[in-house]
Amino acid sequence: MYLYAGKILRVDLSAGTITDEPLNRDWLRQFWGGWGLAAKYFTELANPAVDALDASTPMIFMTGALAGTLAPLSGRFCMVSRSPQTGTIFESNVGGSIGPELKHAGYDGMIITGRAAGPVFISINDADVSIEDAGYLWGKPIFETEKALKAASGCPAAKSMAIGPAGENLIPFACVGSEAYRQFGRGGVGALFGSKNLKGVVIRGTGGIRVADMEKFLSVARTASAENLMTEANLWAKTDGTPLIVNVTNEMGLHPTRNFTYGVNEDFGAIGTESVKKATISQRACISCPLGCGKFTSVDGVAVEGPEYETLCLGGSNCGMNDLGSIIKFNRTCDDWGVDTITTGATIAMAMDMKEMGLHDFGLEFGGKAEYLSVVEEIATLSTDRGRDLALGTRGLGEKYNAGHLAVNSKGLEFPAYDPRGNHGMGLAYATSERGACHLRAFPLFSETPFDHEALVAEVVSGQNFNGIKWSMCICDFWGSVNSTILADLLSAALGETVTSEELDLAGERIWNLARLFNLKAGFTAKDDTLPDKILKTALKKGPNDGSTMTSADLADMKQRYYTSREWDSNGVPTQAKRAALSL
Amino acid sequence: MTMTLITNPDLCTGCNRCAYACSARHENMFAPALARLSINNYPLQGYSVPSVCFQCKRPDCLTACPEQAITRGLDGIVTIDADICTGCGKCIPACSWGMVSKHPTTGKAFKCDLCGGDPACVAECHFNALTFAEWEGDTAKNKAKQMKFRNEYGSPELKRDAFGKSIMNEAGR
Ligand code: SF4
Ligand code: SF4
Fold first, then answer.
1. d(C-alpha A161, C-alpha A207), whole Å
2. Which one of A70, A143, A179 has the shortest CB-CB distance to B21?
3. Which residues line ligand 1 (CB under 6 A)?
4. Is the whole model's pTM more than 0.80, yes or no?
């Protein structure tokens, strides 16, 4: 079989069984791989009435159709399950190199169900797969665990992923770390591992991936790389990486600062791209990526790959923290103990805001370094009262302390670092994302008309549809100029069949609707497509958007236009006609 | 004039595009484990070290081969003639850097042949971590420095890893 390994690995941790099954080829031309194919497997297997942390909830890992080839930026690895944080269907993906390693081991994907009797890890060495005791690793942070997993595999070249104490403690925003500083960051994938007593997975794959016509495939990949990828639209990722966005969003005036109170951080220079450049000691790339956006930084002997933009903002500006060294420490601690930097930063910021508002004093205040740094481990290990409180995330914290008006999330997922009051399209993107507030579904940030609802709705719909197919190829977001024609050309050369951009576009829309249908079955309604009071009821302060709002009326107007444009009814349910057109 | 492949680990990002390009050229598939060079990746330290064949002037693999299947050409390229190779495997432990391996399907030994003088890996490295240059001056010095880190024992994979760690150590990482 070209491009695909042709097999899916199934591990049932309750029964302790390992089987493999042929990849379902009937689904390939509809869902392709990655997000799409994983969502298809998930919706076929999962019961929408069952909780995320139930043993029966399947976790579906899937490589992209182009993973493990010279198609640039194609190496991300996707997981679809249900999020313990939002309750929705949830796709999360990780960079680094572990996805292609699984494909080289002979599997396009992996389905994990059940709960082991005690802590285990899964070891994959090509066709040799086993479930191993991980009792000796339970309680250990991620870096040490990954080292031990590699030692256990006996292969220095093996790739791994693991949870830290946060995942073991089922914290709803626990991440899974892979190859040190890469994460399945959002949505609590780490807690899913923990609920299955799964400490980690180590993979070594030595097999090859074939394409129908190597010369043709290489020439298509090289042309796409030279003419579309390595161009001005994307080279910022190579020269600066995401820290550049600190400067950009401050200029635009929608840079979340002090728990989404201000749209600019007046001291952003201290944590912006020039400062990160000064601290950079080497450049890192995911597998098969010629951009290398990863900046490896070191301050006072503490090193990390990052901090990325989201961490610089949510763990920096939003916490009133303008000390790069402290943010690097925060980043490293989150990565090692296993919590998502976005939610952790946002929740700490909310606790700081609660103190400022006189609601509750957790000993955390904007800009205060020592407590900001020590609380991360307290959250991951649930070792103090405030650690247990903050482990609830912003929604839980708001409920417990009657502080919902300071909690900035949608469907329970904390906002990424773009304030919708400076661009209503981002608000619609957050409200309608299948996994809660997310910037990886539609990203109308650079719209010329950031308050023009009609134009923004069109941009959000097309962005979501295209990301449906892009995440099914597991193509990294930083190939911002990639399009479905390029993807179709790569697939055609690899498969030796004609693949059209139209069928890919349709697949993207199909995937978006499939996720929506699952959420509807799981009990979500149009009411859940919403934004928090802090955004809808207060105006942004300072900077170019001083006084800007995004009211309930704005959101309602956009939602109605959005549903109509999607051919969903006024309750946000896809019409029969739409479902039929998408073969759903 | 002898051209040689030289690496600069300080610039290597660990992207492995070189290894993909190598396996595409030699195996007609994407299989980094079968590439003739390999990248030792140390993500926690943010460092990667390419392992490449040094095309030694007095190759130990060549000396070890009882069949004279390995030769060193006037261009300095050390090649294995697969028609002569019997697959006995004596050359594999002979290399101190783990750069000769047994092919899983043919059973014969295989190693880097610099693509006959136009290395696919160099063309695919976007970070200048791999260069193909005349074997003299600074190039020769750098190469000699890396070649110090020899390992007599272990599988090729373990030798490459030990080599990578020594280089990383020396770089202070
Ligand atoms: S494996 Fe082949 S090349 Fe190596 S020593 Fe034996 S005969 Fe010579
Ligand atoms: S292509 Fe260059 S940067 Fe990438 S792994 Fe190979 S040597 Fe390193």
1. 20
2. A70
3. B 64-65, 67, 69-70, 80, 85-91, 109
4. yes
